[in-house]
Design brief:
By secondary structure, the chain is an alpha+beta fold. The protein has two domains: 13-202, Bira Bifunctional Protein, Domain 2 (BirA Bifunctional Protein, domain 2), CATH 3.30.930.10; 209-250, SH3 type barrels, CATH 2.30.30. It has five helices and twelve strands. It has helices at 22-29, 83-101, 159-163, 169-188, 192-202, and strands at residues 13-19, 41-47, 66-72, 105-108, 112-115, 118-130, 133-143, 209-214, 217-226, 232-236, 239-243, 249-250. Strands 1-2-3-7-6-5-4 form a seven-stranded mixed β-sheet, sandwiched between helices. Strands 11-10-9-8-12 form a five-stranded antiparallel β-sheet, with no helix packed on it. α2 (83-101) packs across α5 (192-202). Bound molecules: biotin. This is BirA, biotin-(Acetyl-CoA-carboxylase) ligase. InterPro entries: aa-tRNA-synth_II/BPL/LPL (IPR045864), Biotin_CoA_COase_ligase (IPR004408), BPL_LPL_catalytic (IPR004143). Keywords: Ligase. One of its GO terms (cellular component) is cytoplasm. It holds the Pfam family BPL_LplA_LipB.
């Protein structure tokens, strides 16, 4: 992976030393009279206002981690099926992590990447629609690569903490582009059964009885799947309930 062998993802690379957020930077480029080509990637050494899901902030030590945003144009995906894109992207990032770290990697719904019970990275997808279909997607990915210290309150981990070695971020980006493109092409070619099966196989806590919190209550449940619109399906005392991201918390 020392060179980028992906066909289009990552071919147009914008490398920045400092930016507010790579997602914001890419969103701005979309307003240009000639928008950037599909597969464009923005990479930053330092983001001073990195964004996570649910208005969270994303922190990373400058120069140590991957903070990147990819432009995809999934015009073949219906707005109602947009979680299919999350699945493909999550799988691409998980495949990349498995390549370096092996089998303890999983996808924590809706789109975090975990190693055992710790967060390795997160994904922030921002979709733009045209009528009933997606037009453009900004796929922001933050992965903890060479950072070795994290605040205690967050259960975070990095490639370096797991493997005790440093990684070249450019090599990581090349590999990530290849794995992401492979999953994106599966989505484009309609290989949804494969994506659904692989997503479930990689899903953190699938089929495991564990603790959750929803509506102020703590309860035991077992994740049984994810619905077509992206809701988490949890079996609670033999009754399957569906939750949106805001509604349920893993404990
Ligand atoms: C999450 O875990 O909540 C998602 C984190 C996503 C962080 C990445 S870093 C690159 C891109 N730019 C941003 O501002 N956020 C995403």
């Amino acid at each position: 992976f020392t060179t980028n062998s992906a066909l289009f993802i990552g071919q147009n690379l914008v490398a920045l030393s400092e930016v507010d957020s790579t997602n914001n930077y890419l969103k701005n480029l979309l307003t240009n009279s000639t928008p950037p080509p599909e597969g464009t990637v923005i990479m930053a050494e330092n983001q001073h206002s990195g964004r996570g899901q649910m208005q969270n902030k994303w922190f990373a030590e400058p120069g140590k981690n991957l903070t990147v945003s990819f432009l995809l144009c999934p015009t073949f995906v219906k707005a109602v099926d947009q979680f299919d894109l999350n699945k493909a992207v999550s799988l691409g990032v998980a495949d990349f992590a498995v390549h370096f770290l092996g089998g303890k990697v999983s996808i924590k719904w809706p789109n975090d990447i975990y190693w055992e019970d710790n967060k390795l990275g997160g994904i922030l997808i921002e979709n733009f629609l045209s009528g009933t279909h997606l037009k453009q997607s900004i796929v922001g990915i933050g992965l903890n690569i060479n950072q070795s210290h994290f605040p205690q309150a967050v259960k975070a981990i990095s490639f370096k903490l797991i493997k005790n070695e440093d990684y070249l971020l450019q090599n990581c980006l090349n590999a990530l582009s290849v794995y992401l493109e492979a999953r994106y092409l599966q989505l484009k070619n309609g290989a949804l059964d494969k994506l659904n099966t692989d997503y479930l196989n990689q899903l953190y806590r699938l089929g495991v009885r564990d603790l959750y919190r929803a509506n102020g209550e703590v309860f035991y449940g077992e994740i049984v799947g994810v619905s077509q619109c992206g809701q988490l399906q949890v079996d609670i005392n033999n009754e399957v309930k569906s939750f949106s991201f805001k509604e349920i918390e893993f404990i």
